[in-house]
Write a structure and sequence with these properties.
The protein has 487 residues and is mainly beta. The protein is built from three helices and 36 strands. Helix content is 4%, strand content 41%. The longest helix is centred in the C-terminal third of the chain and has 11 residues, at 465-475. It is elongated.
Length: 487
């Protein structure tokens, strides 16, 4: 949407026309000078400002002898089965197409720029012929690496990125670093030599303004695409949307492109509202996160039965849960819930799920939300409780360890960085296990044949070997929360 801006200068009541801004705002209705005629439609009034948005065709108004036009580039959006935009048709013939994995992760964006003179009606699509395509550009997303038109462009890392410059086969690499504010907005880009390369300021809801380079010019806004909340801003064809992974966000209209998947938990809030209309204190890293709460799941003889339940939420911290009046414990993007028993036992064949066994389950709540939940066969009570004991129920911090010693079972994940964890029933048996703490608690697989007797687990949490590869792919290599509970 192309919109001009009309805004009072500081210190006077005159109006300034700035066609580089994205928003039409008259902050003071009394500041409108005589002779300014506004269109009868295409705008609405809020309590403190007039925001003019062209809704149909062309609208215009007169100011100091100039005809100011408000132009709307209509879009027609086609969505895939996951509710993600698959194709955007612009009124001037331009087209943007997206390619995703089955779980909704973006793999590719393709931009078709049409030759001038094409007009596509509202709600219609137009398939460009080869003669109508002025240019075709693409961005491929390979994890943290992006390719532009098939050529490596950027490699993202926490706190910055490195860029690639291919000069006739001689590739040079430059490092760039972000200065961020409390919301994760990239405010400055600094070169590896300490040079200030870009400064970006933001309106509260994320629209960038006053972008400048060291020369001070309002240019080079495309130096790097990751801006508000560290999210990619798509400026091509005038779209101006941020990609948050789960949804796209329009910082001009202050809305998401799709409803909140968890909107039924927040009836008082619009399902299109960004961060419950509180962008100064909150931000949304990808649309959702996990938290746990103690919920009543029924009653026996009038006594309530309480159990920890896991829910998905837009909140991204414990403070935001509290601010939203949600009673629970913030967990983060990935959670592994071990549901076990105090009387777990291996099967007659010493496997977790063999004849006569009683095993636990490990449910992974993945970063992609309610459709990213899978359960695995597990064991929580060690290979021999009398000798090795077991850790207490609780919530623990898990992290990737990559512990792969030769001739040993790989131990990819560790709890509490290998530090001491309290054990259960340390003095349960007179001649048995009596220590009240254990160090070096890992999550790892059984033997390859599925057995777990002997010294396979000295208190660690086990996953069935045949399922361990999928478990590792699901959890990934990021930090996560582990909830252990038994009956």
């Amino acid at each position: 949407m192309e919109i001009v801006s009309l805004k009072p200068r500081r210190g006077d009541e005159t109006l300034r026309i700035d066609e580089s801004d994205d928003l039409v705002v008259i902050e003071n209705m009394d500041a409108l000078p005589e002779g300014v005629s506004l269109p009868e439609s295409g705008f609405y009034v809020e309590s403190h400002a007039l925001i003019i948005i062209c809704t149909e065709g062309m609208a215009q108004f007169e100011y100091e002898g100039q005809t100011i036009q408000l132009r709307k580039n209509d879009m027609f959006i086609e969505y895939d089965d996951n509710g993600m935009p698959r194709r955007i048709q612009f009124a001037d013939g331009n087209v943007t197409e997206y390619v995703y994995t089955a779980t909704g992760r973006k793999l590719r964006t393709v931009y078709y720029t049409a030759v001038p003179g094409i007009t596509v009606g509202s709600g219609e699509t137009h398939q460009l012929t080869d003669a109508e395509i002025l240019s075709k550009d693409s961005i491929d997303y390979l994890g943290n690496l992006t390719l532009v038109n098939g050529v490596p462009d950027q490699y993202l890392f926490q706190g910055g990125y490195c860029s690639f410059d291919d000069n006739n086969g001689n590739v040079s690499v430059a490092w760039h670093y972000y200065n961020q504010d409390h919301l994760g907005n990239n405010r400055e880009v600094i070169s590896e030599g300490g040079t200030l390369e870009q400064v970006t300021n933001y309106y509260p809801y994320g629209a960038p303004f006053c972008e400048r380079t060291t020369a001070g010019a309002n240019t080079n806004a495309t130096l790097q695409r990751y801006k508000y909340n560290g999210k990619e801003l798509d400026l091509m064809h005038g779209l101006k949307w941020y990609d948050y992974g789960v949804r796209m966000y329009d910082p001009i209209l202050l809305t998401w492109n799709a409803i909140d998947p968890m909107c039924e938990d927040y009836y008082p809030i619009s399902p299109y509202a960004y961060c419950a209309n509180n962008p100064v204190n909150r931000f949304d890293p990808d649309g959702r996160d996990w938290y746990s709460s103690l919920d009543s799941i029924g009653n026996i003889n009038g006594q309530a039965i309480w159990q920890t339940q896991i829910h998905y939420t837009d909140c991204i911290s414990q403070e935001q849960l509290i601010d939203s009046n949600i009673y629970g414990t913030f967990l983060g993007k990935t959670v592994v819930l071990f549901d076990g028993y105090y009387d777990e036992k291996l099967g007659n064949d010493n496997t977790l799920d063999g004849p006569g066994s009683k095993y636990a389950t490990a449910t992974v709540y993945g970063e992609n939300g309610p459709d990213d939940i899978t359960s695995y066969i597990a064991f929580t009570m060690s290979s021999d409780f009398d000798k090795y004991g077991a850790i207490q129920d609780g919530i623990y911090n898990g992290s990737y360890a990559g512990n792969n010693k030769p001739n040993h079972i790989p131990k990819p994940y560790v709890l509490e960085k290998g530090g001491a964890i309290n054990t259960i029933d340390g003095n349960r048996y007179k001649d048995g296990y009596s220590k009240d703490k254990k160090n070096g608690i890992f999550i790892h697989r059984t033997n390859n044949n599925g057995t777990a007797n002997g010294r396979v687990s000295l208190g660690c949490l086990l996953i069935k070997a045949q399922q361990m590869t999928n478990f590792e792919k699901h959890v990934g290599r990021n930090s996560f929360k582990v909830i252990l509970r038994r009956k």
